[in-house]
Amino acid sequence: MAVDLTAGLARREPDPGVKAAHDFALLEDFDHLYRYADLLELETGVKAEQLVGHYTEIMPGRPTISEHRYPFDNIRFWIDNKTAAPITKLDVAIITAAEQQTMNYYMNVSALYHNDIGRQLYQEIGLIEEQHVSQYGSLMDTKTTMLECLLMHEYTECYLYYSCYEDETDPYIKKIWEQHFEQEVSHLHKAAELLQKYEKKQWQQCIPDGAFPELLKLHENKAYIRDILGNTVQNTSKLEEYVDVSKVPQEDVFYQFQQKLNQPVEEVPTHKVIKDYMEKKGQDYRYEDKEHPVEKLRNRTVDNTSVGR
Prior knowledge:
Helices cover 53% and strands 3% of the residues. It has 9 helices and 2 strands. It has a two-stranded antiparallel sheet with strand order 1-2. Helix 3 (86-109) runs antiparallel to helix 4 and helix 4 crosses helix 9.
């Protein structure tokens, strides 16, 4: 059987639509981090910046209250696996899996939290994670067969474990990453065998050059997030596009959805957590290197519920 090894080489750069989806949801999960961090410090005194290695700041993103959208507005245009760059296919697979796992954790474990405000916080943010799963899952190529998906799944796991292995500095932990990488390589070979046996396709049709793109690295992201915050915090999603919320008509389903879900504002869990913290401590809990890049989110004694809505 002739194998076309050129189709997957058509693109080498990341897909701008995929990057836009990552940047959009980045500000939302960034805000979730801020709200969880305030609850954590209020209840236990633990400083969240110590848990994240000071790699990222902890401050408001796009307020979670603004993130609830009409379901139609959470679906994106899908990528074409035959022409998408390898890094794009990996990005979509990794972020979809991460959001799926996060959503499952929030929706299944939140009921076990020891108090009501924590349970409510998990449940509200779980709704947003469900939206994120829809957004990222819709980026996947719907024409991909089950065995092609299996091959890419194993390739993605190999990529992640090898990235961790290369970036790890602790010799003991490095050995663990190496062991798991070797296990996933064996799974990848088995997936390639199944693809050949049942679909008469060679693995090169899915992974043309057989090499990893640039590996993932753990490092500081403060400047990048500040840039995205400063330029896109007021964005919302309309169908497959992202637009400034000020350009969305007041009769749009976005506002109808917001009105039904977020009334009264004072009872929205993500807002109540911050309000409770401010009442007890005088101001919210943050970890900032300098003032917030968005002027409306700089006040540490009032939780903004209007940005992005």
